[in-house]
Amino acid sequence: TVLSVHTACPGTLANTIGCNDDSCGLQSTVSVPVTGGLTYYIRVSGFAGSVGAYTLHVALNNPPPPPTIGPDVIVGDISDMAWYAPVGNITAYAVGTVSCNVGDVDVNWIASTPQHPVVAQNMYRLMNGRFEQIGQGWLKHTFTALTGSLCGSCNGHGGSVLGVGCSDPYGAGLNGSQSGLGPKWQVNATTGVFPYPPASPSYNGTIARRVQCLTSDIDPAQNAGALYFAEGYYVTSDDAQAHNGLNNASYRRITIASPTATPQVAGSTQRRMPGIQAWRDSDPNVTLVNADYLDGTITARFIVGAKVTDNGNGTWNYEYAVYNHNSDWSAQAVSLPLPPGVAVTNVGFHDVFYHDGDGLNSVNFDGTDWASASSGGALTWSTQTYTQNPNANALRWGTLYNYRFTASTGPISGPVTLTLFKPGTPLTAMAAGVPVPGSPPVCRCDWNHSGALNSQDFFDFLNDFFQSNGDFNSDGITNSADFFEFLQCLFTPPAGC
């Protein structure tokens, strides 16, 4: 049998709303949504003209329940900033956050267990077209949820849960409370899983565990025209495992009047947008592309940002920022295609430092800059592998690293490939459609394609010319016009030669 359901008779392709053949052996089953008061026509036919008796079963079933969102915590507001007296060349801050549950299930908020969110705090600077992370801190472990209504109507559930529609404020002073901060390295941001209590090596001083920045990076006198941004980011297991972990970061612009002043929040909080989005929001010439992979069933994400500037002298500056949103596997290498003949100079790298023992065994992750290399048609930056050094300077979650260079060709659309750091499958993640250097223009008078114009091109062309294979101007014949046009190109090379 073949079954189909129609909204009119006779049945046509245009009025078909469901059709099935061979659902159970050679029998058919078709299921369609229906509306009360309308007439539907069920057509029973035989495959390839088959005929015979049949039994038709019809049942009306209630629709399945809509899919649930699950627990979904976001940063509804970057509320305020705190400043702490510098030590040496480092100034410290904390970022105030207000969380919201925009899901349809309460978020666990159970103190003194692994079933509560941790709050990451970061700072960024945009200056001269470069977007860089300039500071990161340890993670605030949350303990009690209130029942505010910043993001909607709260269901009144609080304490050990953040209720549906409810919000909970954690001011900068609370998020900067040193005794409540734990290291990032113990948290798997893909799954939201972490041990409790967190590692707690000894600390002292006003800047310990808080968001630390080099004072030179935030001093307005040394950073003319710079824009600054703060980011808050909640990670927790029930949210992540409900596949809601990709919207948990928000950013807001802040202003810094001096190295000794408390930064002020400006504008509005950009909800569900990680800090790197500020680069694109501030500069329409910036491209942002996700590089996703599956860790089990959960999506892990990097975001690759790119900006290309034409220097007007036959060279282009390429600026990349790669942000690891929630990949526990991290990144060990960043690679992009580099066609033959492209000259690359001014290769650079920038990262953000770890502090206060935020690394395996309470030793800071290695801060050695990534090395760059050009080979095999690719330009690659890399750090040590996991096997070589588990504490290597991998691009870990909640951090952004920069990669830059000057190239002799303009951009085309291409891939940026990230090699993952920790062992597992897949081995790489890729962002497609990113601006990368294109191939050099073909120089027509480089007759032997050696990459250089010299007398050998003349002799090779002359040899082909006298064998009637010197159609330089591509008009279908080899004649004196080809000879004279080749000479003009050779002695007065056009751009690109």
Outline the secondary-structure elements.
Elements: E1 2-6, E2 16-21, E3 41-45, E4 73-87, E5 90-101, E6 107-108, E7 118-127, E8 130-136, E9 139-141, E10 161-162, E11 167-170, H1 172-175, E12 181-182, E13 211-214, H2 215-218, E14 227-235, H3 237-241, E15 249-255, E16 264-265, H4 277-282, E17 287-295, E18 298-310, E19 316-324, E20 331-337, E21 344-350, E22 371-375, E23 378-382, E24 399-407, E25 411-420, E26 428-437, H5 455-465, H6 480-491
Antiparallel strand pairs: 1-2, 1-3, 4-5, 5-11, 5-13, 6-10, 7-8, 7-9, 7-14, 8-13, 9-12, 14-15, 15-16, 17-18, 18-19, 19-24, 20-23, 20-25, 21-24, 22-23, 25-26
- What structural category characterises the helix and strand content? mainly beta
Number of strands: 26
So how many helices? 6
Which term fits the overall shape? flat
Q: Residue share in helices?
A: under 10%
Distance between the termini: 70 Å
Strand content: 35-45%
Largest sheet: 11 strands, antiparallel
Averaged pLDDT: 95
Radius of gyration in whole Å, from Cα? 31 Å
Spans of 5+ residues with little confidence (pLDDT < 50)? none
